[in-house]
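Worked example 3 (structure in, sequence out).
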C-alpha cells in the first residue's frame, strides 16, 4: 500500500475505484472461504518511460475457483507510475476486459468472390473495399493505409482478429432474393 499514491484511481469499465476501496477489497478477500482460491497472473509487459513517469501495459488474468467451478477473465491493464523520492508510486490504473474472438468457421474460400466490391457507408464519404487475395478476404476503408483480413464466423458474417464480440469487428454481407450480395453491414 505504501507504493500506491493516496489519490490513486483504478478505472474499470464504467467504474472508478479509489485507493481505499481497492485496499478494502483486498482486506475482505484475505478472509479464507473453504474451497475458494483466487489466482492472478500478469504477463506480456511493455514499458514506456517519459521523464519521471512510466506507463506499464500488460495482460492481467484473473481466475477464481469455487471447488470445481472456475471463473476466468482476461484484461489489458495500463498503469501510470511516477518515480518519487527514490521509489515508484502507482498513480492510475486503467483496465479493459478482453473478449476473445469467436472460432474461425470453415468456409469455402471460393465464396469470397461473392463479397468482393465497394460498399459505401450511408451518409458518409467512406467506402469499404473488399477483395479476395488467394484464399483470404480483406477489407480496407477509405483513408486506411492497409487492408485488414476478414475471418469467417459463418458463411456471410466475418470478423477482424482482436475485435472480440465488438460490433465494429463484424461485417455481415446481406444477400438479395436471388442470393447475390446486395449490401454490407458493419
Amino acid at each position: 500500500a505504501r507504493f500506491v499514491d493516496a489519490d490513486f484511481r483504478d478505472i474499470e469499465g464504467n467504474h472508478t475505484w479509489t485507493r481505499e476501496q481497492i485496499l478494502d477489497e483486498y482486506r475482505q478477500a484475505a478472509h479464507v472461504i473453504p474451497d475458494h482460491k483466487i489466482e492472478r497472473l500478469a504477463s506480456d509487459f511493455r514499458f514506456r518511460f517519459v521523464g519521471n513517469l512510466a506507463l506499464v501495459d500488460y495482460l492481467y488474468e484473473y481466475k477464481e475457483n469455487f471447488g470445481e467451478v472456475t471463473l476466468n477473465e482476461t484484461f489489458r491493464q495500463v498503469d501510470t507510475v511516477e518515480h518519487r523520492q527514490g521509489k515508484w508510486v502507482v498513480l492510475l490504473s486503467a483496465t479493459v476486459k478482453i473478449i476473445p474472438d469467436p472460432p474461425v468457421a470453415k468456409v469455402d474460400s471460393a465464396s469470397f468472390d461473392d463479397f468482393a466490391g465497394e460498399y459505401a457507408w450511408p451518409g458518409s464519404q467512406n467506402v469499404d473495399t473488399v477483395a479476395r487475395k488467394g484464399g483470404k478476404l480483406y477489407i480496407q476503408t477509405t483513408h486506411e493505409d492497409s487492408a485488414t483480413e476478414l475471418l469467417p464466423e459463418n458463411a456471410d458474417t466475418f470478423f477482424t482478429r482482436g475485435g472480440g464480440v465488438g460490433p465494429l469487428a463484424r461485417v455481415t454481407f446481406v444477400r438479395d432474393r436471388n442470393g447475390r450480395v446486395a449490401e454490407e453491414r458493419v
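Notes: The mean pLDDT is 87. Residues 139 and 145 are 11 Å apart (CA to CA).
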